[in-house]
Amino acid sequence: MSTPAHTPSASPPRPGLRGMTSDLRNRLLLLLVLPLCLLAVVGVWMDYRSADDAASRHDQRLLRLLPALADSVVAPSIHDHQPPLLLLAPPVEDFLRQNPGFSGYSVRDSEGQLLLGDAWVDGVVPATAQPEFHSLEYGGVTYRVAVQRGRTGAGELVVAIADGSDPRQQWAQQLLLRVLLPNLVLVAAAALAIHWAVGRAFKPLVDLAEAVEYRSPRDLSPIDEAASPSEVRPLVHSLNHLFALVNAQAEGQRRFVADAAHQLRTPLAGLQAQVEAWALMAKAASADLHPPQSDGGDLHKNRPLGRSRQAQGAIILGADQIEKLRNATRRTSQLAHQLLALSRADARSLDAQPPQRVDLKDLCEALLESFLDAATAKGLDLGLEVQPVHVTGHGWLLRELMSNLVDNAIKYTPSGGVVTMRCGMRQGPLGPPRVYLEVEDDGPGVPEGERGRVMQRFYRVPGSAGEGTGLGLAIADEISRVHRASLTLEPGAQGRGLRVAVLFPN
Questions:
Q1: Burial of residue 24, with CB atoms counted within 10 A of its CB: 0-12 exposed, 13-18 middle, 19 or more buried
Q2: Which CATH number fits domain 21-173: 1.20.120, 3.90.1530, 3.40.50, 3.30.450?
Q3: How much of the chain is in helix, strand and coil states, percent to nearest 5?
Q4: How far apart are CA 237 and CA 443, in angstroms?
Q5: Which residues contact 302 (CB under 8 A, 6 or more apart)?
Q6: Long-range pairs, 103-106, Cβ under 8 A, ≥24
Q7: Measured between alpha carbons, how far is 105 from 103 in angstroms, rounded to an integer?
Q8: Contacts of residue 394, Cβ cutoff 8 Å, sequence gap at least 6
Q9: How does pLDDT run across 228-255, given as a tens digit for each residue?
Q10: Where are the domains of the chain?
Q11: How far apart are CA 276 and CA 268, in angstroms?
């Protein structure tokens, strides 16, 4: 009965609870860094305004020097092809002396021919008598050039003065090193400092989120308020209050289910024993009164017991009625047992019971003996494929898990089918091999759209044959969660039946 092994899919990881703190951190970081960026932009603008004001004053100085340069041309040339006579005015001479290598001048005629000064001071001849400004690149320096057409001692000439110490040019050259770079470094350092400070400030909230996230679903114990910062204590107090309410409600439900199951088990056990005795007596009476050679058939099926078997004043039941009563008591007894198992699997007291080493091979072999008669009576082939493996957990819960899976398989597999129990090691999609338990049958299976719903309590697939309580898979799933294992439902071999696998953590 060996079938190909299928690897159960692992449960998806739980999403984390850092979204809130991450959003708060980012928003606070943005609110603190954005003003710094605005201040940096304002600082750059103010520096530019300062440079512009200084440049405006510089232009005014150049404008004052142009008439002085025009007055420096005192007379025309004495000889042909000779420059006019030049005597630099003191302001012009002081300007040139104060800016050596970064200043110059030129005197040209109305056609742009150089008469006096520096040839590189190339000024465009103005169309009017109004002064004009332009920039000039020379020797790797950007010069501010002022040009004006004016009257001189040698007639109408074009005078120009160049200055390489323009504040605007200096500001443009030093913008990166003196303005932008320091501001960027300041903003980056402030962002890192704020990010660190915000992270430290939100660490208690992150620790609280992690404590709640990784807590066991059955752990509703209060969080220590004294160990929490004062800013987080109101939230911790509210969480503890919620834990107390949920714990009280869950405890009440567990007590109700456990008490109901305990109260039902004893009377139902006695009732079932009595009905079983009645069923045997009814079958014996039916055999005495209606031997097999009788042609009555089903006409005598509901006929009361013979007078020789009746006591005066006794309630007379037919054989089919007693059989129905027996089936009902069996279902009620099974329901009480499953309710008790579900209550025990969900109880917080389970945490107080230390887990033990459980031999899954011995567990499967013991279950084979328990269910062999039921499987044989229905004409099923109950098989076993096991390897010696162990897990740490609660043996009685794992037995309850497998009992529900095997009982479901026997109940819903038609006569002549095959039910197989397995345990061993199986290679998962990632990581090392993991221990697994598995029950496979070739019955009708579970439609893909119903596999998620059959894990719900008291849910049964519509149209399914047999009489069940809808608790078998729910109990198995709950016990799997207790052991931090994943329970999966897959089609059986060749797409027939159902394979229920439990994959344990490493």
A1: middle
A2: 3.30.450
A3: 50, 15, 30
A4: 53
A5: 318, 319, 320, 321
A6: 103/161, 103/162, 103/163, 103/164, 103/165, 104/143, 104/161, 104/162, 105/69, 105/159, 105/160, 105/161, 105/162, 106/159, 106/160
A7: 7
A8: 350, 353, 355, 356, 358, 482, 483
A9: 777 778 888 888 888 888 877 777 677 6
A10: 21-173, 264-345, 353-503
A11: 12
**pLDDT for residue 144 is more than 60:** yes
Asked whether the whole model's pTM tops 0.70, one would answer no
DSSP secondary structure letter of residue 178 = I
Is the pLDDT higher at 77 or at 266? 77
Structure tokens at 330: 């069996």
482 sits in which H/E element: helix 472-482
User: Is the pLDDT reported for residue 379 higher than 90?
Assistant: yes
What type of residue sits at position 106?
A: S
pLDDT tens digits along 21-53 = 566 667 777 777 788 778 777 777 777 777 677
| Element spanning 75, H or E | strand 73-75
Cβ neighbors of 406 (< 8 A, separation 6 or more) are 367, 371, 382, 419, 421, 439
- Which pLDDT band, with edges at 50, 70 and 90, does 307 fall under? very low
Helix orientation angle between 360-377 and 395-412, rounded to the nearest 10 degrees: 30
- Domain 353-503 architecture: 2-Layer Sandwich (3.30)
Q: Which of 458, 488, 477 is nearest to 400 (CA)?
A: 477
* Percent of the chain clearing pLDDT 90 (strictly above): 14
Is there a contact between 384 and 447 (Cβ–Cβ < 8 Å)?
no
Strand partners, 151: 156
- Both structure tokens of 261: 């199951």
DSSP codes joined into one string, 392-452 = EE-HHHHHHHHHHHHHHHHHHSPTT-EEEEEEEEE--SSSS-EEEEEEEE-SS---GGGTT
Tokens of 324: 């129905």
For the ranges 52-66, 246-260, 393-407, 466-480, the one whose mean pLDDT is highest:
393-407
Look up residue 123 and give its two tokens.
Answer: 């000024």
Count the neighbouring beta carbons within 10 Å of the beta carbon of residue 452.
Answer: 10
Structure tokens at 271: 């009732």
In a 13 Å sphere around the CA of 493, the CA atoms on its Cβ side amount to: 14
Instruction: Compute the distance between CA of residue 147 and CA of residue 260 in angstroms, rounded to an integer.
Output: 108
Question: H or E segment at 152?
Answer: strand 141-152
